[in-house]
């Protein structure tokens, strides 16, 4: 290639780049040089907030908030760890109790005690008293049931882990692969909390004998296999029991048109495992002050009130009140199974391996 | 030459090397021993074995079902041929999330097979194999059919005049000419199925896993980077070997064949045999390819109160909550990204093809294969690689929108090269010289001589790169910005939430994506090229 | 105008094949030079080297005294008409002719007039809108010429300009070209393997052999005094014979031949032009048998075999004097048509 040609190509490439830049200039807010007043929140895909609430925070704090969604929960955490020394943002939202140890072991965060933490019940707090992370929301991974099925079959829906192994519920449950799905993993951890470190494999053997079906993702389980979901009804899903979230029934009701009087699905409240999601100040944040303000905002009443309808999770702030529409369909879970992040970290990989050989081989 | 080489170095080789290095380096030194440790794990052996054999079986099945179709599209004339050819290509560019779920409607519970014979194939290997046929049908039809249509039928006629039976004439004249094209198509199908990700994950169930799926699990879920790095290297070696064989086959094919204008070789079917063949192919294509697509359309229209366009209307509102913007905006985003990606792919691929067409050294041929390597590397590897390598100025592109078209162009460029190369090779070098002597600089000569002659091929390449960019999911999902989701990303996010409206919108958006892809491909057919997307 | 100084081009593995071997050549302003040689003698390579399409392995190309080594093809300002024309299929006739004008930045409004004039010049007035695929060989030839002339190159190069045309067309075009070049004052470097074409077209002829210049001179000089046996044979002269010169007589297998005064004594080779082979009664000269007789329009070419089994020879005679095949004739040699070769 001659020098002239090379020069010309470079010029052409540059021109092209310029043209493309021009074409997409409406995304200018993503300018690679955020001013000092910009604070960037790295979050997983499910993060959502009402526009007005965010605007309000920006107005009050003087910061402009940029949200960077970085894949599902697992991916987002992994990416944050990979980019720890040169992070993509200032604060991170969305590491849950099953992944928290991975984040802490990799020194993803620096300590910060968020203002307003006192209003968060200590049972949600994590780690030592240096406050590496701030709890933001909680939710429960529970078995959901298709109300119509159980009415039609004059069968009482299951309520506990033990129920699921009963012959009456044979071939009714679908769950997710624990190595690729966080509700799948949560359900496994719930059973381990219920039956103990040694006892859970026996329980899963019973589940397997009782015809539990395993698919790879929540999307498949819920949208294709579960007879109670909108997608499942269309796809002819024939499993009336699915491992999902306690907040799935409200979503099912709110996103139906017209909205029904009660949700078409219910929650087996004795099968729940509590998930807590945390946020933290990233280790090498460029705008730590902004990040701190942002963390304060995430546990503020305004955000916590707004959160349930956007992310279908429950607030951790005691005084927060979910919107009426959410409360109308929400299911109260009083005594979910819980497990300390350290314990999860210690057993997780081994349990996943054991589970895989029990269920998939 | 320098531009495509730099492009692949910076946006492919460097990120992949970066993430592999992350996995295999600890405490400042390399741990090559980990490779052995990972490879001897029994689970990995199982994955390897499954990867290879399902790819072989998928390739065989695809050839079996698609070769008759290649003949039908090449030699027979029937109404709706163009539309059908565009439609059978749609699955190839459809995101696996969507196609996989549609495919379940065929093979899964309540699917056609279930209704007819009570047979369910989901979570079996059969589902994977058939879905691979669904996706790769077009590769065979277009690659083999494209050449077949241009083979001079008179050669076969000559053989028959010389006393060969119809079958013998086919075996001795047509088959040898088609052989390399069939081999090239088979290798590409093998490559695609070898690195299959979404299909295996959705249809195979958790018990089945390919190397690609395992790389994803190890990287994104388990965060076991050493294992992921070893698997990535392993897959690179395997894919490199496949591509090397493919490059040889392609070169063999590019040797002179007597080609004629494809328009003149197709006839209306005659005789019972040809009608049966046509009917069979149409039925297969209908059941295997169009039915799953039809299911998507049907589900997108079936609202809680009967059939209607409710979900499509909902796409325009931002109330869903899954996004900061109405889902329909994803169409505009996708189009913008795809246009930018197409421009980059054309620039990079075009320059590479131009360079490859002029010189032929062993090094350059190697580069030819290298350009196709991104097709065989896990999107999660590239995506994570971007994160750990492109993080310093001037290449701090991590949160820049340009990463999306760049990643998509990586996938699109190989298509551009493969489409343009044969045409560029056919341009007489002396025409360029004539232009040079008349005062045209090399660039001007390219514009004046090559460009007009390759305009069609360029259009074809552009359309294909466009469609592929539009459908690209794996890499895009890692890097698309939340306020600017592309169509496949939006579909995936909608599917990730409970509720009728979300599911319905996902289906509606899938149909939109399908229609946009089909339109792009139909435009290509209109442009009248027969060699669309040859490999 | 053009000077080649030891121009050398090698091809192939390890550059073992030498296509141009230290060629020295000059073309003066307004001169028409024709390079003549058999295929494979390096003629086309010579043109490509001058045009800048073929880099030199050694030597220099100078145009108007300036070394062109670093000048790419499109900046050399020379024209080249390709052997098979290489018209641009995507342009019509006018578009082809206007191509060079566009490249040289001739304003859009001036182009049609110049294209029209050029087409008129080559006898294709009004053909602007015709597609090149519809042109006959001769017409393509003319369009290619008009296209090459359009940017007014300081040097016009023609590669086998009339190669693919039939004989009558070729003879007519040679004359037209000659007139055209004279009218335009164009400097021309043409290559051909056809001596008739070269002699008719050129002010000066350069004969090439295996990448080297074998002879250079006016057509008449070359015709009358071929520099060596190769040139003689290439010009169609087969009457070449070994001789030993003593004074003004040379001793050969055909007997004693007269040679010009001053020819150095000793061994050499002689060329006898067919016109210098005169037929006499059998007993009055070298006795020969007529083995073949070819009618050539203006004369008859004879192939003669000496009765003493000496080398065969060619003769030319008027139609009315031509003997039949098998006739016995005598041959004497005319000193005027005997050329001493080195």
UniProtKB/TrEMBL annotation, chain A:
InterPro entries: SBP (IPR006059), ThiB-like (IPR005948). GO terms for molecular function: thiamine binding; thiamine pyrophosphate binding. Keywords: Signal. PROSITE patterns: PROKAR_LIPOPROTEIN (PS51257). It holds the Pfam family SBP_bac_8. It comes from the Bacteria. GO terms for biological process: thiamine transport. Residues 1-22 form the signal peptide. One of its GO terms (cellular component) is outer membrane-bounded periplasmic space. PANTHER family: ABC TRANSPORTER SUBSTRATE-BINDING PROTEIN, THIAMINE-BINDING PERIPLASMIC PROTEIN-RELATED. This is Thiamine ABC transporter substrate-binding protein. It comes from Streptomyces sulfonofaciens.
TrEMBL record, chain B:
The chain crosses the membrane at residues 52-74, 86-106, 126-149, 170-203, 223-245, 275-297, 335-357, 369-390, 402-421, 457-480, 503-524. GO terms for biological process: transmembrane transport. Residues 48-244, 331-524 form the ABC transmembrane type-1 domain. It is found in: Cell inner membrane; Cell membrane. InterPro entries: MetI-like, MetI-like_sf. Keywords: Cell inner membrane, Cell membrane, Membrane, Transmembrane, Transmembrane helix, Transport. It is a multi-pass membrane protein. One of its GO terms (cellular component) is plasma membrane. Belongs to the binding-protein-dependent transport system permease family. This is Iron ABC transporter permease. The lineage of its organism: Bacteria, Bacillati, Actinomycetota, Actinomycetes, Kitasatosporales.
From TrEMBL, chain C:
SUPFAM superfamilies: MOP-like, P-loop containing nucleoside triphosphate hydrolases. One of its GO terms (cellular component) is ATP-binding cassette (ABC) transporter complex. Keywords: ATP-binding, Nucleotide-binding, Transport. Gene3D superfamilies: P-loop containing nucleotide triphosphate hydrolases (3.40.50.300). GO terms for molecular function: ABC-type quaternary ammonium compound transporting activity; ATP binding; ATP hydrolysis activity. The keyword Nucleotide-binding applies. This is ABC-type quaternary amine transporter.
């Amino acid at each position: 290639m001659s020098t002239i040609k090379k020069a010309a190509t470079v010029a052409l490439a540059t021109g092209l780049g310029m043209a493309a830049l021009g074409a997409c200039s409406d995304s200018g807010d993503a300018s690679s040089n955020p001013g000092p007043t910009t604070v960037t929140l790295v979050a997983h895909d499910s993060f959502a907030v009402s526009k007005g609430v965010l605007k309000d925070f920006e107005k009050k704090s003087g910061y402009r908030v940029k949200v960077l969604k970085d894949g599902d929960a697992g991916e987002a955490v992994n990416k944050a760890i990979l980019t720890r020394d040169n992070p993509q943002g200032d604060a991170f939202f969305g590491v849950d109790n099953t992944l928290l140890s991975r984040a802490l072991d990799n020194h993803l965060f620096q300590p910060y005690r968020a203002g307003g933490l006192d209003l968060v019940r200590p049972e949600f707090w994590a780690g030592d008293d240096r406050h590496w992370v701030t709890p933001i929301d909680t939710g429960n991974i529970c078995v959901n049931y298709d109300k119509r099925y159980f009415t039609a079959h004059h069968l009482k829906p299951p309520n506990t882990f033990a129920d699921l192994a009963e012959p009456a519920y044979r071939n009714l449950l679908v769950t997710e692969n624990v190595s690729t799905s966080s509700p799948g993993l949560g359900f496994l951890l719930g059973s381990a909390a219920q039956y103990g470190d040694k006892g859970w494999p026996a329980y899963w053997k019973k589940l397997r004998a009782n015809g539990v079906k395993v698919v790879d993702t929540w999307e498949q389980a819920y949208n294709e296999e579960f007879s109670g979901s909108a997608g499942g009804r269309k796809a002819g899903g024939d499993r009336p029991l699915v491992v999902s979230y306690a907040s799935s029934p409200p979503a099912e009701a709110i996103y139906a048109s017209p909205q029904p009087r009660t949700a078409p699905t219910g929650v087996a409240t004795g099968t729940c495992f509590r998930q807590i999601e945390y946020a933290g100040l990233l280790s090498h944040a460029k705008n730590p002050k902004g990040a701190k303000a942002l963390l304060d905002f995430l546990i503020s009443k305004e955000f916590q009130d707004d959160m349930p309808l956007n992310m279908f999770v429950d607030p951790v702030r005691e005084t927060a009140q979910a919107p009426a529409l959410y409360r109308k369909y929400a299911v109260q879970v009083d005594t979910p199974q819980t497990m300390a992040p350290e314990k999860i970290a210690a057993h997780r990989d081994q349990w996943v391996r054991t589970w895989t050989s029990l269920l998939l081989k | 030459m320098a531009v495509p080489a730099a492009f692949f170095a910076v946006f492919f080789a460097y990120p992949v090397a970066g993430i592999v290095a992350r996995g295999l380096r600890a405490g400042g030194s390399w741990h090559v021993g980990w490779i052995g440790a990972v490879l001897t794990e029994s689970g990995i052996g199982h994955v390897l074995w499954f990867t290879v054999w399902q790819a072989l079986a998928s390739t065989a099945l695809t050839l079996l079902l698609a070769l008759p179709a290649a003949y039908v599209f090449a030699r027979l004339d029937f109404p709706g041929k163009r539309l059908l050819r565009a439609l059978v290509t749609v699955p190839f560019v459809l995101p696996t999330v969507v196609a996989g779920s549609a495919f379940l409607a065929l093979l899964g519970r309540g699917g056609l097979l279930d209704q007819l014979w009570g047979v369910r194939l989901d979570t079996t290997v059969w589902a994977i194999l058939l879905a691979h046929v669904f996706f790769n049908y077009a590769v065979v039809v277009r690659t083999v059919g494209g050449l077949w249509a241009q083979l001079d039928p008179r050669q076969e006629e000559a053989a028959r005049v010389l006393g060969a039976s119809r079958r013998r004439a086919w075996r001795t004249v047509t088959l040898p000419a088609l052989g390399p094209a069939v081999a090239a198509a088979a290798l590409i199908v093998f490559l695609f199925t070898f690195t299959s990700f979404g299909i295996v994950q959705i249809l195979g169930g958790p018990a089945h896993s390919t190397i690609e799926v395992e790389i994803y699990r190890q990287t994104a879920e388990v965060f076991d980077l050493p294992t992921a790095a070893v698997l990535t290297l392993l897959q690179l070696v395997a894919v490199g070997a496949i591509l090397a064989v493919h490059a040889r086959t392609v070169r063999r094919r590019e040797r002179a064949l007597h080609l004629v204008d494809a328009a003149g070789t197709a006839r209306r079917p005659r005789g019972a045999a040809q009608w049966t063949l046509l009917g069979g192919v149409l039925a297969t294509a209908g059941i295997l390819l169009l039915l799953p697509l039809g299911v998507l359309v049907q589900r997108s229209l079936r609202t809680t109160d009967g059939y209607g366009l409710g979900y499509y209307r909902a796409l325009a509102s931002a109330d869903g909550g899954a996004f900061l913007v109405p889902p329909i905006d994803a169409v505009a985003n996708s189009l913008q990204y795809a246009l930018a990606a197409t421009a980059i792919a054309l620039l990079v691929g075009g320059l590479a093809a131009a360079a490859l067409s002029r010189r032929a050294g062993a090094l350059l041929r190697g580069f030819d294969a290298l350009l196709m390597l991104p097709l065989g590397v896990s999107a999660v590897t590239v995506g994570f690689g971007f994160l750990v390598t492109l993080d310093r100025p001037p290449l701090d592109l991590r949160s820049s929108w340009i990463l999306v078209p760049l990643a998509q162009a990586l996938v699109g460029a190989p298509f551009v090269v493969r489409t343009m190369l044969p045409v560029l090779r056919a341009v007489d070098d002396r025409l360029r010289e004539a232009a040079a002597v008349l005062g045209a600089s090399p660039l001007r000569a390219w514009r004046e001589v090559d460009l007009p002659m390759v305009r069609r091929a360029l259009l074809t390449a552009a359309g294909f790169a466009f469609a592929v960019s539009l459908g690209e999911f794996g890499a895009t999902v890692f890097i698309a910005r939340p306020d600017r989701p592309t169509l496949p990303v939006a579909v995936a996010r909608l599917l990730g939430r409970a509720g009728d409206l979300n599911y319905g919108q996902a289906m509606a958006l899938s149909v939109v994506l399908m229609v946009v892809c089909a339109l792009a491909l139909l435009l290509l057919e209109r442009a009248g090229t027969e060699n669309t997307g040859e490999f | 105008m053009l000077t080649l100084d030891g121009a050398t081009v090698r091809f192939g593995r390890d550059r073992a094949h030498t296509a141009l071997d230290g060629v020295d050549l000059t073309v003066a302003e307004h001169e028409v030079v024709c390079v003549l040689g058999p295929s494979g003698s390096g003629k086309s390579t010579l043109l490509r080297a001058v045009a800048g399409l073929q880099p030199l392995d050694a030597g220099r190309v100078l145009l108007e005294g300036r070394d062109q080594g670093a000048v790419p093809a499109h900046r050399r300002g020379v024209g080249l008409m390709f052997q098979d024309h290489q018209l641009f299929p995507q342009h019509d006739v006018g578009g082809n002719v206007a191509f060079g004008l566009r490249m040289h930045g001739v304003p859009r409004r001036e182009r049609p007039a110049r294209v029209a004039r050029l087409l008129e010049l080559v006898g294709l007035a009004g053909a602007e809108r015709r597609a090149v695929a519809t042109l006959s060989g001769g017409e393509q030839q003319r369009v290619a010429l008009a296209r090459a002339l359009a940017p007014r190159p300081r040097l016009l190069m023609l590669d086998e300009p009339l190669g693919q045309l039939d004989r009558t067309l070729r003879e007519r075009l040679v004359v037209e070209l000659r007139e055209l070049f004279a009218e335009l004052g164009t400097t021309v470097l043409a290559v051909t393997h056809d001596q008739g074409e070269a002699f008719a077209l050129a002010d000066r002829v350069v004969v090439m052999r295996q990448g080297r210049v074998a002879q250079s001179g006016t057509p008449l000089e070359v015709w009358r005094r071929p520099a060596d046996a190769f040139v003689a044979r290439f010009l169609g002269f087969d009457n070449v014979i070994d001789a030993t010169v003593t004074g003004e007589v040379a001793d050969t297998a055909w007997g004693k031949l007269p040679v010009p005064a001053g020819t150095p004594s000793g061994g050499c080779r002689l060329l006898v032009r067919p016109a210098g082979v005169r037929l006499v009664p059998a007993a009055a000269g070298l006795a020969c048998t007529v083995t073949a007789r070819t009618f050539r329009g203006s004369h008859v070419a004879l192939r003669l075999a000496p009765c003493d089994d000496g080398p065969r020879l060619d003769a030319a005679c008027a139609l009315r004097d031509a003997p039949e095949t098998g006739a016995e004739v005598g041959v004497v040699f005319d000193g005027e048509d005997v050329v001493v070769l080195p």
